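2.7 Reproducibility. Because tokenized structures are sensitive to small changes in the input, we list the exact sequence used for Regulatory particle non-ATPase, including any N-terminal residues retained from the expression construct. No trimming or masking was applied before prediction.
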Amino acid sequence: MGAEHSIKTGDIAGFERYLAQLEGFYFDNKLGLAESTVMYPLIGLNLLRMLSENLIADFHTSLERIDLGQLQNNQFIVHPVKLEQALMEGSYKKVWQARAEVPTPEYLFFMDILMSTIRNEVASCVEKSYTSLPFSDAKSVLFFSSLDELLKFANEHRWTVSPSEKRITFPSAAENPRQFQGENIMKQSLLYAQELERIV
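Resulting structure tokens (single pass, no recycling of outputs):
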């Protein structure tokens, strides 16, 4: 099937096109055709695609078209629904654990995209919150299973890696100065106050 082939070849746009065509049969079945065995796995994959692309409004619109019984009991639908709940809670560890619980191997394609997005978000927060982290902590907080993956990620982000100290150092505030313009703010505030006095 075209949608499954698109996943195997990493063609997200192609997958989207195939699903748009199939949704007419899945949700507007006026001919009374029997449900396809791949209907819910593909709908679940599409929900996961929306999450991986941060299309939360589209995700919820799609959920409204799915039967309540399927929402609560169908493993292919329950998986992305639980993922979305974990994302809304900020429970990235649950998202990471859900990768090991995918209902079908095809789900791993979008799970990896989602994890990459989460990793980059966490990395952005970590480098602003810490000056450095030990390898073990960085590996844990960024959800890496191996040190090699962590070191590759660190190099891509241009973090300083110290193998002897087993530590990653993030760019310091001195390298990325954010000057506080206190004097300018005070001058501006005084000007506003003077202008207000004139008006009154």
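The chain has a mean pLDDT of 85.
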